[in-house]
Amino acid sequence: MSGNSFGKLFTVTSFGESHGAALGCIIDGCPPGIELSEADMQADLDRRKPGTSRYTTQRREADEVRILSGVFEGKTTGTPIGLVIENTDQRSKDYSKIKEQFRPAHADYTYMHKYGVRDYRGGGRSSARETAMRVAAGAVARKFLQQRLGIQIRGYLSELGPIRAEKLDWDQVHQNPFFCPDVDKVPEMEAYMDALRKEGDSIGARINVVADNVPPGLGEPVFDRLDADLAHALMSINAVKGVEIGAGFGAITQKGTEHRDEMTPEGFLSNQAGGVLGGISSGQPLLASIALKPTSSLRLPGRGIDVHGNPVEVITTGRHDPCVGIRATPIAEAMMAIVLMDHYLRHRAQNGDVVVSTPVIGQL
Amino acid sequence: MSGNSFGKLFTVTSFGESHGAALGCIIDGCPPGIELSEADMQADLDRRKPGTSRYTTQRREADEVRILSGVFEGKTTGTPIGLVIENTDQRSKDYSKIKEQFRPAHADYTYMHKYGVRDYRGGGRSSARETAMRVAAGAVARKFLQQRLGIQIRGYLSELGPIRAEKLDWDQVHQNPFFCPDVDKVPEMEAYMDALRKEGDSIGARINVVADNVPPGLGEPVFDRLDADLAHALMSINAVKGVEIGAGFGAITQKGTEHRDEMTPEGFLSNQAGGVLGGISSGQPLLASIALKPTSSLRLPGRGIDVHGNPVEVITTGRHDPCVGIRATPIAEAMMAIVLMDHYLRHRAQNGDVVVSTPVIGQL
Amino acid sequence: MSGNSFGKLFTVTSFGESHGAALGCIIDGCPPGIELSEADMQADLDRRKPGTSRYTTQRREADEVRILSGVFEGKTTGTPIGLVIENTDQRSKDYSKIKEQFRPAHADYTYMHKYGVRDYRGGGRSSARETAMRVAAGAVARKFLQQRLGIQIRGYLSELGPIRAEKLDWDQVHQNPFFCPDVDKVPEMEAYMDALRKEGDSIGARINVVADNVPPGLGEPVFDRLDADLAHALMSINAVKGVEIGAGFGAITQKGTEHRDEMTPEGFLSNQAGGVLGGISSGQPLLASIALKPTSSLRLPGRGIDVHGNPVEVITTGRHDPCVGIRATPIAEAMMAIVLMDHYLRHRAQNGDVVVSTPVIGQL
Amino acid sequence: MSGNSFGKLFTVTSFGESHGAALGCIIDGCPPGIELSEADMQADLDRRKPGTSRYTTQRREADEVRILSGVFEGKTTGTPIGLVIENTDQRSKDYSKIKEQFRPAHADYTYMHKYGVRDYRGGGRSSARETAMRVAAGAVARKFLQQRLGIQIRGYLSELGPIRAEKLDWDQVHQNPFFCPDVDKVPEMEAYMDALRKEGDSIGARINVVADNVPPGLGEPVFDRLDADLAHALMSINAVKGVEIGAGFGAITQKGTEHRDEMTPEGFLSNQAGGVLGGISSGQPLLASIALKPTSSLRLPGRGIDVHGNPVEVITTGRHDPCVGIRATPIAEAMMAIVLMDHYLRHRAQNGDVVVSTPVIGQL
């Protein structure tokens, strides 16, 4: 209820601060009998991990996850899965300055108003470091969805500031440090980021996430539509400022004849809806896209105030990502996996595993 | 859990189908001692009501709400508030055709896959008729927020297909059938809609919603951020395909120095964040914007399939809104009100009504 | 969250005051495809209904339930089921006295402290009149459990004050006004109740509830054990002061060799556990027993205080049950049905409808 | 949703198996600004700890709790509190026998039916070892309740098999290994337990728990009454078979004039209700009593079956408590603390910290 849980039936509850002892989470509701080991999570964690290229923060964290419960003889038992990642790179540092001031566009100011106290070391709970647990938990969901339902969830960076990917070549996504599916744009992105780093500034980005082979019928109208829960999940990722499903904001200028996805016995003729009709999956690929803001932690000075209300000039010298969007791809995939997993279980609760006689039409 | 409730502490649970006996909802968690009567809700319901201009559906519904419980001697008692609206204009009609076919881009197909049965009359539960209860419940939240905290929630249509409002004059919003804040664009919108109706097509729209005087401190990191819950709430409205907070998708091409809202003792110098930092309200106006798709219920024929998987040509001859975005403004306001109300109660639960010594800086 | 919902996946949310316009509830999560009509609920409502014998309150309520949504062409659709019962016998009465005073052992005093206001007419929300909706919702659960799983839920009055039923003859339970399974004790109970009514006093009772054919595997350790949720459900019924599962308080003086239910391939050799092991159903009959206190609404004067803190002598002259336990049997059955239904759906969510190879042993 | 969380606003989610790597929990919703260290929890943990006398299991566990998050500079921050206790005494042992058989009256059989797999080492998740985290979390609630509201929660063993405490001397409770408040009965209990251990059998017990200084107004009618949530909490403790509030099962034979607690300006004249009226605290002491069954893990042989359905003779040679009730006192106190804490936050959410003008009458 205080916001640290996600999912109603596949429930992830997380804890941990940027510079605390450890991060952790509990996954409750995972079906029993799934083969699971730390290695299943580590691959995704490594994709999110800081310090893997010169375009991300140089903080060094092994992000080694440890399973504390819920897995026995290599399989989930249906009991809660406790996960923990120890924080290792908590540089000792003088925090006396940051303790007294509110950095512009940071959560310092709002946490203080909310709680009256705050852990100011590295942003505390408001740090994106928390998303490591999302990735770990998402890996569990992803594995189940892949093995039992054949669902595949993949993401990529489609825009880095002014540079747009124009091709979608899935094989390229993990061949470059940007998760960019268009190999031709990679050199441009590299040059852009190098210039940006010299400048001391940061930039926004867009991430697209796609789930293929989603069965029709997932989603709970009217409030917990699949797309609404997905919007919730994706907007809860640090730095996200916008979420689109299918045509998204493009739908504003579309006419009905253009937007509506016609159906034939062979399949849908388009996917403007992004795989969701009336809040329920249609069997088409689930398409979501998110906007991530540029980080506000800059060495370029900005105006802030201190805890007494006095003006201060703020310079942030820590190790920060100049484009937080770059590392967001595995996080967005993880959140989509958690949402789909949760809705699969919710669907199964009410409707069972019944085979519906309605024809499932193909996917284009 | 089956999706018909919204809000954790100010909880709205609704029921009702388009052509069923009645719509209703239960509001649980409303604080006691609030003056409340049907009239408080009726004003908002009337703004959403169909048939008020030639640009909306001609279905006639009085949408008269009745309070069945939770109010005594004109005040809320803290017990659940039961509300009901009887459906009056359920035209008797031959549904044999629609019963057998899946209209393109409708929930017919997905409801059938999910449940194996469906109420096909007028879309049943998937009809936007359901949103009447959101508006009624939202009016209760809105009243509390206004009276106790001075929060004001207002929305407007900022784009109707290709036509954009370029001025924001709040006084104009209720002077035209489009909720358009730019009086100069109204004739253009009228002409556009008249042409569209002749054509038989429909169009998308954009709605903006703003809450002023939101106190800092509302929102529950990390998953139930104020903006994440707002995204959930707004994306759950029929036809919504995208949600933005503050700069939204514009943040993709912004640099950090441009996006970060600097603070001075007199106030924030900008509001790119849209009133939320780290998922918690900052005291700035809360800014959200949504994209609504064009309705798919058209008299222009479209390709669909029937329940046996055969191709059919679908023509929808019912009374439908050519731009569902037009009536969406009070619905979006209602959902923002419910989210803020819920987060106010959640905040109060954990943090009490404590006065934080941190200076609250002004709003620009 | 404010206490008016029960069940996580089969969720009943109710509203309504004793002397308000109507009572109602929303059932969310009911599986689709179940045949359902008002008649299915009316039979159970009639068993709970006041005024059916001289041993219960003489308030006259038809308790006619109306289905407002969620059922189409005689079957549930999976969408929320809205139910309403209009209050008809709200005798106009002078409430000025009760308005100012707190009756001993009533909720008047605590509601006032909690909410600062209260609907004092007939107890308002604290009246047992609210339980009518539990019975209606329970009837839906009961029907599903019976039809799909063969589960049968039955209750009876086992003690009325000092008089204990010594035989359990299910055929007798509905042949007398006490739900007593021992026909030989009925005359004694009649005489006792007649004397009590003359006296102006009231008496406590014990109700037993049994579910047969519960499949093994229902219940969610560690906090939402089947028995813990059942204790919650039963203790939430007005006037209940104690709950036992299986041996109950008798287990205090039992030795392990006496309490543990041994198993053979043919079945369990006893049922001290009451059908639950480790919080999960074992396949044995589920056995619960509850204690109901005597009503405190008496015409015999009692000491109370008024809203100003002054002492008052309280005499309650309304129409009250001298033994509220008598009408509690269908309510307790309904709550057990809701708990089992909820746990069946919860089980199915996590575990599916898998057939476990473990041998299910017989029931003795 | 899978049963490993308790509390709606003060939420404890736990994980861990008897012989797994560690136990842990996350407390979400704890108010900020509370002084908290491991020492606050350790005192209660030590009271529950095994091996402190010859009357409990000889398993040796330090039960040292470690705070991983949510506390900064000695105070809670309002963010989730992660706790972990490493398991240290997991004797290596041959589990091949227990792996194949279902012990009578254990959760082996039901876990297997529910999940299809189970961690058979020491009972896995069904072991009472899990309650260590309840005690740790309860200590946090207890500290808040004590400091902010002056609430004091204490428990004691009132019956050990046939031996009843006849005096309530709080000073004695922690002076003997049984938590017995009647010093005169301690030698009798010692002799009884010594005989029992020789015999190889086990015995049931009764625990009483009392909360003093509970303010009036806590509890959420109608389903989440304070007593109903308490029944849920207490019945969820391993081995509990019955719960009573106030007069409990004694109310069956009480008359209304005897049961109803009369009120005078100086206070209530009795406390048959056990501190709850209409599901809401009255300001009187909150009184609960629970029955605990004898453990079924005995070295005396019992009949069970194996996983193939064949009959087996089961002898349990592990280190087990001959009376699990003895160590249950701190667990029951912890659960009462969590329930009260949760209801305090729930009350504050809806009703704020308002001072009600209604006179609060004294406690007798």
UniProtKB/TrEMBL annotation, chains A, B, C, D:
The UniProt catalytic activity note for this protein reads: 5-O-(1-carboxyvinyl)-3-phosphoshikimate = chorismate + phosphate
Return the broad EC class.
lyase
- GO CC terms: cytosol
Necessary cofactors: FMNH2
Query: Where does the chain bind NADP(+)?
Result: 48, 54
GO process annotations (BP):
amino acid biosynthetic process; aromatic amino acid family biosynthetic process; chorismate biosynthetic process
Q: What is its EC number?
A: 4.2.3.5
Sorted alphabetically, the keyword list is: Amino-acid biosynthesis, Aromatic amino acid biosynthesis, FAD, Flavoprotein, FMN, Lyase, NADP
Q: Which Pfam families match?
A: Chorismate_synt
Cofactor: how and how many bound: Reduced FMN (FMNH(2)).
**UniProt-listed Gene3D superfamilies:** Chorismate synthase AroC
> Which SUPFAM superfamilies does this chain map to?
Chorismate synthase, AroC
| Taxonomic superkingdom | Bacteria
The UniProt record gives the binding positions of FMN as 125-127, 238-239, 278, 293-297, 319
GO MF = chorismate synthase activity; FMN binding
Pathway of this protein? Answer: Metabolic intermediate biosynthesis; chorismate biosynthesis; chorismate from D-erythrose 4-phosphate and phosphoenolpyruvate: step 7/7
| PANTHER family registered for this protein in UniProt | CHORISMATE SYNTHASE
Entry function: This reaction introduces a second double bond into the aromatic ring system.
Q: How does it assemble?
A: Homotetramer.
Q: Which family does it belong to?
A: Belongs to the chorismate synthase family.
User: What protein is this chain from?
Assistant: Chorismate synthase
Q: Which organism is it from?
A: Marinobacter adhaerens
- Chain's gene name: aroC
